[in-house]
Design a protein that fits this description.
Layout: E1 9-14, E2 16-23, E3 36-42, H1 59-65, E4 73-78, H2 87-100, E5 103-113, H3 115-126, E6 133-137, E7 155-160, H4 169-180, E8 185-190, H5 198-202, H6 205-212
Parallel strand pairs: 3-4, 3-5, 5-6, 6-7, 7-8
Antiparallel strand pairs: 1-2, 2-4
Helix pairs in contact: 2-3
Length: about 220
């Protein structure tokens, strides 16, 4: 994506400064009625730092780099080295980005892997009203959670049964808690996968179709 017409690099700041990559779908029209779906992607611990190109290694950006044409604006921030995702800083980034681009506010989606999967839980727990659907991949459990906050946010969780870095019990705990609170959660377990459940998850066209089936209620 570097140097292409679909890539920009900017920064937003509130508590934490994030540089980020963006992808705009083919034929993007800043004046199109109803705007475009937005997919916010949070990377894992291995992609932190100051080399923005690391964000291309995994997830939806990798799929785009390999030729997949996604019908979303994709926003992929980079977490500073040795840090973790900050919910309020991410919310500020969304505010800034949506103010300057043709985003449909009813079709904002959130996904992330490993540390980024934890970021998905954290951000959706803090601001559930912002997202039409979420998809955490091999996510650590969120300790300080309010399961009822996820009640109206459809979720699809992915995890490898053989994951020794973030054991599958992390996802099972979250899924059970949200279901008990009345939320809608879909769980996909890859029986032979270790920590890398993201290759299969983000390589599956059904995930992107599933996102687009959901709109945030007014």
């Amino acid at each position: 994506m570097t140097g292409s017409r679909n890539t920009t690099r900017k920064s937003a700041q509130r508590l934490v400064k994030y540089r980020y990559l963006t992808y705009f779908p083919r034929g993007y029209d800043p004046r199109r009625k109803k705007g475009y779906p937005l997919l916010l992607f949070l990377h894992g611990a291995g992609e932190r730092g100051s080399k923005l190109g690391l964000v291309k290694k995994l997830g939806p950006i990798r799929e785009i780099e390999r030729g997949r044409d996604l019908p979303f604006i994709v926003l992929a921030p980079q977490c500073p080295a040795n840090g973790g995702w900050n919910a309020e800083a991410l919310a500020a980034l969304l505010d800034d980005f949506q103010a300057g681009h043709n985003v449909n506010p009813a079709r904002v989606y959130l996904t992330g892997l490993s540390m980024g999967g934890h970021g998905v839980w954290m951000l959706a727990n803090a601001h559930p009203e912002r997202f039409a659907a979420i998809a955490p991949v091999c996510p650590p459990v969120l300790r300080n959670r309010v399961p009822g906050r996820f009640k109206d946010v459809p979720a699809w969780v992915f995890h490898g049964a053989m994951d020794s870095v973030v054991p599958i019990t992390n996802s099972l705990t979250m899924v059970r808690a949200i279901r008990k609170a009345g939320g809608s959660v879909r769980l996909t377990i890859y029986p032979d996968a270790g920590h890398d459940s993201w290759t299969q998850a983000y390589g599956n066209p059904a995930l992107y179709r599933w996102f687009l089936k959901h709109r945030r209620k007014a």
